[in-house]
Q: What sequence folds into this?
């Protein structure tokens, strides 16, 4: 019985939140890795792209809520998501036309793109702050829990409760659907295949008649969908604050590199590796130990490896380990 | 030395006019305030220019190196807190030693043992055991120190030395952090260095915010000793009253200007020395080698140059300059406020300075530092004025108008982004290009 309680505590505080967070990171990292594979640079504006997409979705959600539209138990934001994706796609395509296309024509070095993406980051960040402000925004509605702690306790008769929030369930389901759609697109459709060919060998792809501008255009649309979805899910799960999205850049890049830059499967694996390590390293295991260990074995401390303030240190630590021992990432990314 | 181009004098003259104009239109006090921070920004830009302009290294952790410099200012100049030292000073040092020994032990295990799973297990065992020991020594000491009069101190304090000594120490701290990052991330793709520096900066800021025993965390350290006289003392000094009488100025406002001028004097000495050193370095065989490596790594390494070693060297040098600037900035502010270290304000703004000023050219970096800092300060009131003008047709309580005017502060990020992109596209070599 005690072991069961321990498992429930662990599931409640580590496994469920880490799964949701991992799915959000994976979606973010997929966007970074796609840009890296097709356009061949690390996009520093990605965090702010997520913020922008989430912001548009929030604005539309507020509009829908004001008009009395709702999805019942599901958050209204899901209804607004397609609009968010469309607007973000327009913004990204516009950015590509105005900024990146020029450097593609010049065949500029990757680092120039990165600096350009810094400029784009500034502009997007400024836009988001300008439109919606720097504060916390709440936009979640509908049912709060799929399983609430009290229901779980009365259902199972255990001392500990397990709560699964609607946002966590939706995150996982949406992420799985998006990933299936993405992989179907990349592996089965003609356009997807041409994207992979372009990523593998640009010159060969050009020779076989693939239109690079079309590949780039589709990449940006997919990236907009991934980034907006990731941003909205993160915002539903936690809350929307522009600066948090900028700070997500580090765990997202860490996920993409840990998995292997340019490798979509790696990006997903990396997202979960980072999320699970971050949450389990910063979680205080005292309560879990309380159920498993005999009383006089209990250590005094919280049994917390690092305080939650250092959660970025975990992504960074894993990043360093991967760079030191396996710079191509777990799944053999493109480049060293 | 090389010939000075008239165009460059004109550019510096224009920036000077901006500052003088601010002095005449607003007040000399605020113009000098902007000028002093402009000097600090110019030094940061010099540091980044060494890394990017000489060697093509992409550092986005400037905010972290700057913050380390700020920490150095506290650790060197603040008076020590004897009660806190008695409570847990030696024990903290012992804990840090144990931590360092753990890492050293892990490295020894990794390099000495033969390949295979034994090595991995042994290294993990050393790390885990070391971490447990470290925490066992560290935690009680930290709690003891932080409970010593937490409202006023609650930290170990510093060494009580003159604050100017903190400037080179800040450089050393930053150099140490840069060595660790560079060792890991240099020699790999250029993007990896960028992401690693982004990470180390986040961690340095997190340490400053949370390790109260070290620098009081978010409780801030205020009242750092100054290298220049205090306004209050000046206002009572005979010679100063006589001086302000002679030039016919108000004693109070002149004392504040005098203090700012003294800071400016100190900073100008530092920046001139740095420019002289970097110009000498750039025109020496070493500088030519660096540029050769930047322009073609393959052929430079074919000529027998160790590219990764040279990159590490310049990365450490440039970061040290950022640390120095960080210590100077904290000295100027007179306080360490960890929550004020925002990457958008430090790291990315300094990048705009370097790109706009002219990468690879020290004078360009300095010009960019002054110009962009001035704009950063001035865009806010300008944006406000612009928005007020645009919305002047609307009613005073129009929600759109209120929102726009409230958001004027965020115009500066937008403007800086546009500056960066426009320069990068239409004048990628900057205002004062590399020769």
A:
């Amino acid at each position: 019985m005690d072991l069961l309680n321990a498992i429930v505590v662990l599931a409640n505080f580590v496994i469920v939140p880490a799964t949701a967070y991992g799915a959000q990171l994976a979606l973010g990292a997929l966007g970074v890795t796609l840009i890296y594979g097709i356009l061949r640079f690390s996009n520093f504006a990605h965090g702010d792209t997520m913020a922008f997409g989430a912001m548009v979705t929030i604005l539309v959600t507020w509009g829908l809520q004001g008009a009395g539209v709702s999805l019942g138990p599901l958050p209204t934001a899901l209804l607004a998501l397609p609009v968010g994706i469309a607007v973000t796609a327009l913004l990204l395509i516009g950015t590509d036309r105005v900024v990146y296309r020029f450097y593609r024509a010049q065949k500029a070095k990757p680092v120039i793109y990165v600096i350009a993406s810094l400029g784009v980051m500034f502009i997007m960040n400024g836009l988001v702050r300008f439109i919606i402000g720097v504060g916390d925004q709440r936009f979640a509605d509908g049912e709060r829990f799929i399983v609430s702690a009290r229901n779980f306790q009365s259902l199972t008769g255990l001392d500990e409760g397990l709560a699964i929030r609607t946002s966590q369930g939706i995150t996982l389901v949406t992420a799985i659907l998006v990933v299936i759609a993405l992989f179907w697109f990349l592996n089965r459709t003609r356009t997807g295949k041409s994207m992979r060919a372009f990523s593998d060998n640009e010159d060969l792809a050009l020779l076989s008649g693939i239109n690079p501008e079309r590949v780039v255009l589709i990449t940006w649309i997919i990236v907009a969908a991934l980034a907006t979805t990731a941003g909205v899910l993160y915002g539903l799960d936690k809350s929307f604050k522009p600066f948090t999205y900028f700070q997500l850049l580090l765990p997202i890049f860490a996920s993409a590199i840990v998995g292997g830059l340019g490798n979509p499967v790696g990006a997903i694996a990396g997202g979960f590796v980072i999320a699970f390590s971050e949450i389990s390293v910063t979680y205080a295991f005292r309560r879990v130990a309380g159920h498993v260990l005999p009383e006089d074995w209990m250590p005094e401390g919280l049994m917390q490896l690092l305080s939650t303030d250092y959660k970025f240190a975990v992504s960074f630590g894993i990043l360093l380990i991967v760079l030191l021992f396996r710079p191509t990432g777990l799944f053999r990314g493109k480049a060293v | 030395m090389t010939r000075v181009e008239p165009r460059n004098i004109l550019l510096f003259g224009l920036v000077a006019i901006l500052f003088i104009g601010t002095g005449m239109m607003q007040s000399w006090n605020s113009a000098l305030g902007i000028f002093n921070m402009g000097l600090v920004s110019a030094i940061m830009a010099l540091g980044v220019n060494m890394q990017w302009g000489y060697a093509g290294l992409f550092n986005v952790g400037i905010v972290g190196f700057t913050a380390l410099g700020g920490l150095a200012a506290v650790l060197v100049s603040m008076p020590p807190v004897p009660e806190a030292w008695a409570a847990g000073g030696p024990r903290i040092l012992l804990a840090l030693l144990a931590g360092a020994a753990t890492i050293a032990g892990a490295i020894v295990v990794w390099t000495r043992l033969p390949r295979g799973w034994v090595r991995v297990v042994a290294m993990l065992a050393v790390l885990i055991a070391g971490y447990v020991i470290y925490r066992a020594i560290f935690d009680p000491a930290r709690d003891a120190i932080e409970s010593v009069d937490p409202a006023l101190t609650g930290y170990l304090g510093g060494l009580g030395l003159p604050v100017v000594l903190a400037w080179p120490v800040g450089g050393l701290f930053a150099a140490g952090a840069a060595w660790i990052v560079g060792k890991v991330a240099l020699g790999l793709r250029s993007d990896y260095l960028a992401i690693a520096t982004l990470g180390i900066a986040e961690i340095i800021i997190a340490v400053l915010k949370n390790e109260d025993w070290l620098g009081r965390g978010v409780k801030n350290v205020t009242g750092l000793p100054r290298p220049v006289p205090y306004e209050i003392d000046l206002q009572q000094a005979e010679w100063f009253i006589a001086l302000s009488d002679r030039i016919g100025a108000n004693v109070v406002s002149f004392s504040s200007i005098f203090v700012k001028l003294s800071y400016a004097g100190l900073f100008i000495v530092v920046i001139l020395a740095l420019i002289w050193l970097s110009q000498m370095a750039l025109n020496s065989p070493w500088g030519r080698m660096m540029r050769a490596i930047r322009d073609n790594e393959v052929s430079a390494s074919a000529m027998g140059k160790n590219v990764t070693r040279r990159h590490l060297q310049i990365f450490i040098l440039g970061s040290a300059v950022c640390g120095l600037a960080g210590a100077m900035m904290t000295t100027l502010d007179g306080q360490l406020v960890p929550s004020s270290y925002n990457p958008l304000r430090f790291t990315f703004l300094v990048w705009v300075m370097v790109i706009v000023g002219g990468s690879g050219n020290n004078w360009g970096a300095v010009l960019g530092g002054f110009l962009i800092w001035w704009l950063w300060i001035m865009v806010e009131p300008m944006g406000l004025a612009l928005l007020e003008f645009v919305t002047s047709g609307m009613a005073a309580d129009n929600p759109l108008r209120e929102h726009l005017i409230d958001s004027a502060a965020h115009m500066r990020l937008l403007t800086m982004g546009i500056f960066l992109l426009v320069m990068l596209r239409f004048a990628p070599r900057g205002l004062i290009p590399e020769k």
Summary: Chain A has 14 helices and two strands. Chain A touches chain B through 50 residues (CB under 8 Å). Residues 2-325 of chain A form a domain with the ABC transporter involved in vitamin B12 uptake, BtuC fold (CATH 1.10.3470). Residues 2-39 of chain A form the longest helix (38 residues).
